[in-house]
Amino acid sequence: xxxxxxxxxxxxxxxRVFIYFAVPILLLSAVVLALAAYAESLSGHxxxxxxxxxxxxxxxxxxxxxxxxxxxxxxHANRFYYRxxxxxxxxxSIVFWIIGWAWATASASDTLSFDNYGSYDSIRGHWVAFGxxxxxxxxxxxxxxxxxxxxxxxxCFTTEPTTTTASEPGSDV
Length: 173
What we know:
Layout: H1 16-43, H2 52-75, H3 83-113, H4 124-156
Helix pairs in contact: 1-2, 1-4, 2-3, 3-4
C-alpha cells in the first residue's frame, strides 16, 4: 500500500529556496545560543535569576536538531524521513520562538528598568550587560521566528511530483 501526504516516509521534493531559509535559521539560532549562554553566565550573579535564558538555550538547541536533522535526512537518509514529524516539529518551533522572543523582550525591559544610575554601583554593569544581551536575543529571535514561518510555509506548500504508472495499484491509467 502506497503512503502519501503527511504519512509518507520519504522526503518530499524540496525546492532550493528552502535551503536559503534553513541555513540562516541555523546560523541565527547559533547567535541566539551564544548570546543566551553569555546571558546565562551573567544571570546567576547578584541576586537575579532568569529562566528566559534557559528557554532560549532550549529553543536554539531544538532548532539545530530540527533543521539540521531535516537537512541531513533529506540529503543522506531519505528513508528515515517522516513528514508528519517534520511538520509538527516546525509548528512547535514557530510556537517556541514566539514564546522565546516575547519572553526575552519582557525580561530585557524589566531588567533594564532596574538600571537607575547609582543605586547598585557595584553591579550596575552586570545588570546592563544582562539586559542588553537578552534584548539582543529577543531581536535575533524575532528574526528567526519570521524565517521559521516562511520555511514552514515553503515546506507545507511544496508540490510533490506524481510518479504513478499503470502497473501500480491505485492508479487510474
